[in-house]
């Protein structure tokens, strides 16, 4: 905490949304933007993905997202379209409403990959939209922790340790930011209509959301070992590519997210569990991103975690359970989930006690947790 470099790093946001027409139906017009590094598509043609440049703070990242958002809204306004600012999709007449992103030319392989995903998962799953938060520590800070000769190998092992901790605690930011309990009945059945308040606070993070048909078990002895454990799933056909590793947390290489690019080492860690927040113009509360940064910092200072296959399976189960609307009976390590969250937030507040801004962010999250506790016991004192 005394190291001023500890708070520095590289930040980025990816935001997925859908385009809808004046009737709030999925737009059937072609993607209105030339794909760039900052404005593109993900799975379908009527989806827009905004990708900020690498920034030096959460606030700088939010400012860039705001500029990209304004560009998109101004363009869509001219054609009578708007952005659908919910993680759950609007009414779907049929899967014909969901055209696969029409990547062409040198990007044609992207379309073929998405057609493979369509066959394996169906199109509806691919409409869920959210926020991905990307972060890496300042290398100057990491150099202060390591004095040996092979910094690159040590840095990779640092991110592997961090990945294990963040994966095991991925349920916590989900618990604090889930924002999609209501969905359209057409998500379940063609032609059906009407709002449904289901049993999930976040459908996309729940058991019916973005997951592989199995829990990928990864290895962490070294970066090479980690990469090889992913490649084995690709080689045996369980995954089409590393991009199909549907877990709430990812390690990313520099450049394109291709497994071979890890030869250059780990670039950053990606947290993928944030719902679009419909109460925020940009779909995300900056305080929640600041908290995600603090959580990463906090977990980076915890002891190494023995992330056994059993714990990897449990981490997925914990994450899915945290997406339930009713948390009665949900536990983490045998402790009721809301109490466990409170314990971690208390520990984080103590860890950051000398930093007023950090304490303020943690208390902001504590207030949200207090509301969930009050709702559970029906008493607010």
TrEMBL record:
<feature type="domain" description="Glutamate--cysteine ligase">
    <location>
        <begin position="3"/>
        <end position="235"/>
    </location>
</feature>
<dbReference type="GO" id="GO:0004357">
    <property type="term" value="F:glutamate-cysteine ligase activity"/>
</dbReference>
<keyword id="KW-0436">Ligase</keyword>
<comment type="similarity">
    <text>Belongs to the glutamate--cysteine ligase type 1 family.</text>
</comment>
<dbReference type="InterPro" id="IPR007370">
    <property type="entry name" value="Glu_cys_ligase"/>
</dbReference>
<keyword id="KW-0547">Nucleotide-binding</keyword>
<protein>
    <recommendedName>
        <fullName>Glutamate--cysteine ligase</fullName>
        <ecNumber>6.3.2.2</ecNumber>
    </recommendedName>
</protein>
<dbReference type="Pfam" id="PF04262">
    <property type="entry name" value="Glu_cys_ligase"/>
</dbReference>
<comment type="pathway">
    <text>Sulfur metabolism; glutathione biosynthesis; glutathione from L-cysteine and L-glutamate: step 1/2.</text>
</comment>
<keyword id="KW-0067">ATP-binding</keyword>
<dbReference type="GO" id="GO:0046872">
    <property type="term" value="F:metal ion binding"/>
</dbReference>
<dbReference type="GO" id="GO:0005524">
    <property type="term" value="F:ATP binding"/>
</dbReference>
<dbReference type="InterPro" id="IPR014746">
    <property type="entry name" value="Gln_synth/guanido_kin_cat_dom"/>
</dbReference>
<dbReference type="GO" id="GO:0005829">
    <property type="term" value="C:cytosol"/>
</dbReference>
<dbReference type="GO" id="GO:0006750">
    <property type="term" value="P:glutathione biosynthetic process"/>
</dbReference>
<feature type="domain" description="Glutamate--cysteine ligase">
    <location>
        <begin position="241"/>
        <end position="320"/>
    </location>
</feature>
<dbReference type="InterPro" id="IPR006334">
    <property type="entry name" value="Glut_cys_ligase"/>
</dbReference>
<keyword id="KW-0317">Glutathione biosynthesis</keyword>
């Amino acid at each position: 905490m005394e190291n001023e470099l500890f708070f520095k790093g590289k930040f980025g946001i990816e935001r997925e949304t859908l385009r809808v027409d004046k009737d709030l139906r999925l737009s059937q017009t072609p993607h209105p933007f030339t794909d760039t590094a900052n404005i593109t598509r993900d799975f379908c043609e009527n989806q827009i993905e905004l990708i900020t440049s690498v920034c030096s703070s959460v606030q700088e990242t939010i400012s860039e997202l705001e500029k990209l958002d304004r560009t998109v809204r101004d363009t869509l306004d001219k054609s009578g379209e708007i952005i659908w600012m919910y993680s759950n999709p609007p009414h779907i007449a049929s899967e014909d409403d969901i055209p696969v992103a029409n990547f062409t030319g040198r990007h044609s392989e992207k379309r073929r990959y998405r057609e493979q995903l369509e066959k394996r998962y169906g199109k509806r799953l691919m409409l869920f939209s959210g926020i991905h938060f990307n972060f890496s520590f300042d290398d100057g800070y990491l150099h202060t922790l390591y004095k040996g000769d092979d910094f690159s190998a040590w840095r990779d092992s640092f991110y592997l340790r961090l990945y294990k901790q963040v994966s095991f605690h991925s349920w916590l930011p989900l618990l604090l930011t889930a924002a999609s309990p209501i969905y359209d009945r057409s998500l379940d059945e063609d032609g059906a209509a009407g709002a449904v308040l289901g049993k999930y606070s976040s459908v996309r993070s729940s058991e019916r959301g973005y997951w592989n048909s199995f829990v990928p078990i990864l290895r962490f002895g070294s970066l090479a070992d980690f990469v090889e454990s992913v490649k084995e799933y690709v080689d045996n056909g369980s995954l089409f590519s590393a991009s199909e590793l549907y877990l709430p947390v990812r390690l990313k290489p520099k450049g394109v997210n291709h497994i071979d690019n890890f030869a250059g080492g780990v670039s950053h860690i990606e947290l993928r569990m944030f719902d679009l927040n419909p109460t925020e113009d940009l779909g995300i509360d900056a305080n929640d991103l600041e908290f995600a940064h603090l959580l990463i910092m906090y977990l980076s200072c915890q002891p190494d975690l023995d992330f056994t296959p059993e714990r990897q399976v449990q981490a997925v189960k914990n994450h899915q359970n945290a997406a339930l609307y009713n948390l009665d009976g949900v536990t983490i390590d045998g402790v009721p989930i809301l109490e466990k969250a409170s314990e971690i937030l208390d520990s984080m507040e103590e860890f950051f006690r000398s930093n007023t801004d950090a304490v303020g962010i943690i208390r902001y999250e504590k207030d949200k947790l207090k509301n969930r506790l009050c709702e559970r016991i029906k008493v607010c004192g």
